[in-house]
Design a protein that fits this description.
single chain; alpha+beta; 5-stranded antiparallel sheet
């Protein structure tokens, strides 16, 4: 996770930060990726105040950590049919102890303070006059809160790893749930990873053909799932609300920034995006193909005795939970500003706002509808697929 964060920040130009801040920023990015708490603070003199807020998960780092930790947890448990509850808790506890030590180290490293320049012109003149000539902004990790959220993140990763892997053992009391839960969980993980893989290919093509290779690489290494999973929900018909103001912005694609850079909150949907770029309707096509493929995969990994309506219900539940997770993880909020005497932001390129939040109720309703339809179709398509372990009856011999 740290290596991926360092490469992404290097591509973004973070190595030029003053006072040797690069290692601290890398640690802060990893802390944020696992749900840790990194608070921003400012100091601009006696009668001036800096304020900053950042709430975002760099999901490329999150996904990389989840894949590595999940694989490491499952490795000693493979090739077994059943595992006791105590054994699973024991392995999880070993991971938790090591994870706590890592989080403490990252939390202590992830802290730094910067001095920012007001530049030239009216902003600098007013700042000097009122004693805000050298505003400072910094970040610091709340270690106890980070330990709480970091451990919850670890528990979630380990639970999902057990649900997804068909070869991982479960306690005897939970075996009755694996036929209804595991195929759907596996299909949803494959669906999300398919979006990431497709987005990576598109990103590489953009970097090679359109230029801005460093900026594109930074997005791929730090926030690729943030963009492609947002596109996934929009392709299903979901809407997001947000706004972009000031020097901040969404790095790519440009159409997102165009729609959201308005005086008031704007809606991000297939309709509003298509007004700027008609190719956005391909998101609907991609969603239809990949979600139907995930439904077929789920049905093919399910027992042959399951009926199409059961696949539809399982797919609806799985897709709704997946969309819920994406909506909670991909939202973002960032604000920075410098105020004098408590009156507004000083401006001058020093203030900015980015926020993006889902219309959650509509997104979940659409996910259930998509799940019911694609799950039913996927169940019908998978009827002739031979399941692993299924014994086919021999046809009677002809006399």
């Amino acid at each position: 996770m740290a290596v991926l964060a360092a490469l992404g920040l290097w591509a973004a130009g973070a190595t030029d930060l003053p006072d040797g801040a690069f290692p601290s920023v890398v640690a802060a990015v990893v802390v944020m990726a696992v749900g840790g708490s990194v608070g921003l603070s400012g100091d601009a003199g006696a009668i001036a105040e800096t304020n900053a807020e950042l709430s975002v998960l760099p999901l490329s780092i999150t996904l990389a950590g989840a894949l590595v930790l999940g694989a490491g947890f499952l490795r000693p448990l493979r090739h077994r049919a059943v595992a006791g509850t105590r054994e699973l808790i024991g392995w999880a506890a070993r991971f938790a102890v090591l994870w706590i030590l890592v989080l403490i180290g990252l939390g202590l490293l992830a802290r730094h303070r910067f001095t920012i320049s007001l530049g030239e012109g009216e902003a600098a003149d007013i700042g000097d006059l009122l004693g805000a000539g050298s505003p400072k902004i910094g970040f610091e990790t709340d270690v106890p809160l980070t330990l709480v959220f970091g451990l919850l993140w670890l528990v979630g990763v380990l639970v999902v790893a057990l649900l997804v892997s068909r070869g991982a053992p479960l306690p005897a009391g939970l075996l009755r749930f694996q036929e209804s839960v595991r195929p759907g969980a596996y299909a949803m993980v494959v669906l999300l990873l398919a979006y990431v893989a497709l987005g990576f290919v598109i990103g590489v093509i953009v970097a090679v053909t359109k230029g801005h290779a460093a900026e594109t690489l930074a997005v791929l290494l730090l926030g690729l799932p943030n963009l492609v999973w947002l596109a996934f929900t929009i392709g299903l018909g979901a809407s997001w609300e947000g706004r972009v103001d000031g020097p901040f912005g969404l790095p790519m694609p440009r159409v997102l920034d165009d729609v959201l850079r308005t005086p008031d909150d704007s809606t991000l949907s297939l309709r509003t995006l298509s007004e700027h770029d008609g190719r956005v309707w391909w998101l609907l096509v991609v969603a239809a193909v990949l979600v139907l493929g995930a439904a077929f995969l789920m049905a093919a990994r399910s027992p042959a005795r399951m009926r199409a309506w059961q696949h539809a219900v399982h797919m609806a539940v799985a897709l709704a939970l997946t969309v819920l997770a994406v909506c909670l993880l991909a939202r973002l909020s960032a604000h920075a500003g410098l105020s004098l005497l408590g009156i507004g932001d000083l401006g001058g390129g020093l203030s900015g706002l980015v926020k993006l939040h889902p219309q959650l109720g509509t997104a979940l309703i659409l996910a259930v509808a998509w799940g019911l339809v694609t799950g039913f179709i996927g169940g019908l398509l998978a009827r002739r697929v031979h399941r692993r372990g299924e014994v086919q009856e021999d046809e009677p011999a002809q006399s």
